[in-house]
Specification:
Strand content: 15-25%
Helix content: 55-70%
Largest sheet: 2 strands, antiparallel
Structural class: alpha+beta
Oligomer: single chain
Number of domains: 1
Number of strands: 2
Length: 64
């Protein structure tokens, strides 16, 4: 269980670091990505981007 926690935390750090680059190529602004303001803060739910990235990861895993 500790290994999974470490992997998830490392993945979150990696995605956070790549967020600026991913926005430049259009990810995070796809149809299906929700962005709204609540409680004085902007919230983002990149549902379409997450589906696209997981599909690409599954395809890479299948090919390798």
């Amino acid at each position: 269980m500790l290994r999974w926690l470490i992997v998830v935390l490392l993945a979150l750090v990696l995605v956070q670091g790549l967020t600026g680059w991913l926005r430049k190529i259009g990810l995070g602004r796809l149809p299906g990505d929700l962005r709204f303001r609540a409680f004085g803060r902007y919230w983002e739910l990149p549902i379409a981007t997450a589906l696209l990235l997981s599909w690409i990861a599954a395809l890479l895993q299948h090919l390798l």
